Amino acid sequence: MINHHLSNIISQTKLLEELADQYGTPTYVYSKSRLEHNISELLKAISMSFANYQIYYAVKANSNINIIKILKNKFNDLGCDCSSPGELFAAEKANVSMSDCVYTGNYESIEDLKTALNAGAEINLDDLNSFNRLKTIGVPEYVSFRLNPGKGHGQFKGIITGGKDSKFGIPKEDIVKAYKAAKSFGVKRFGLQCHAGSSTLDADTFSDITEQILKSAREVEDSLEQKLEKISIGSGFGIPYRDEEKPLNLQKLFKNINLVFKGYYGDDNKNWPTLCIEPGRILVADTGFILTRVTGTKSSYKQFIGLDAGMETLMRPALYGAFHRVQKIGENDGETLKYDITGRICENTDRISKDHNMPTINEEELCAIMDSGAYGYSMSHNFNTRPRPAEVLIDEEKLILIRKRESIEDIFRGCNV
Ligand code: LLP
Hints:
The protein is of the alpha/beta class. It is 31% helix and 24% strand. Strands 1, 13, 14, 15, 16, 17, 18, 19 and 20 form a 9-stranded mixed beta sheet that branches.
């Protein structure tokens, strides 16, 4: 058995067989207590080092309304970072106040901006052109701009969002110009945001990125002759997907960020701009796994395990080469084999894992694909016309269906047939 916070759940063979019988497979399964634990730990760490802070949950990581509600119930001031009208909708349905939300888009349509503005969310603009589109509908009193600090970080090339190749944000050389223009058109109050990458486990990276952000913030403040009210360092906080990786020490991380703030804003943390973070992965990734059944096995040039969960269920391995541990449910005879774990999709990139050592497994047996709570369901899709899975919450011993499995009819609902 792998060493994981959810071992107490994935070792309960009877419970998982019942779950599979009742709700089918593949199903995303989440632990309520782990969700509560993650938000509490983050809150504790940030509040130890900052007097003024705000947590905007990045809805893109997992937009299930029930999941957002659990986070909100544990931290009543929770805000949401939303990047589409759909994510604003999810936040609102989870009872998160729209005035506690920030809309971070990119290449936003005027319609998108209108939805965010009318909802009453704060707007974090990706470019001066974004502001120019926004001002055709209205000029809010407060805006922030997204900085591209010229470099980024992240576990895979595809999730680095700062640097010369990034489509996001305003180059640090141009950032002052954007604020001056917005001020000249009537914006009164400002913040600054930067999200330079994702899935980073090196704590020093966050101090470094904060340093870059505050350097640009200082230039903006000097040229506007006005203080920025909020500084968002985005997110990027990683989780250990592998046995040998260590979790981030959040208390130490915020202590270090506090030191960077001290260097720019002095000793009294009550006079600092509000530190904002937009965590997605660290709150939800390790709270969920995919319960899936082996549908076929094959001895070819390689040994294959075929699951009913494929790249349409969890896209991260095919898209980035991301690694997820796969745990066989139930007894094993101690023998292990090296497998390629795949789904039923007609693409050779359809892999959940490559060269994965695991106990020998037979058709019809169950597996758990671990750490799928973030960017799992929210990136699932319908390729090969496969309906999306169900989502179930485990609350103590209770199983609660929090999203029903999509049906084939659901997929064709919009078609005129
Ligand atoms: N804020 C902004 C503006 C973002 O774009 C993102 C993620 C976040 C916050 C949350 O970042 P996190 O806490 O999760 O690191 N699909 C990829 C991850 C892409 C992240 C995109 N932006 C994956 O599966 O790893």
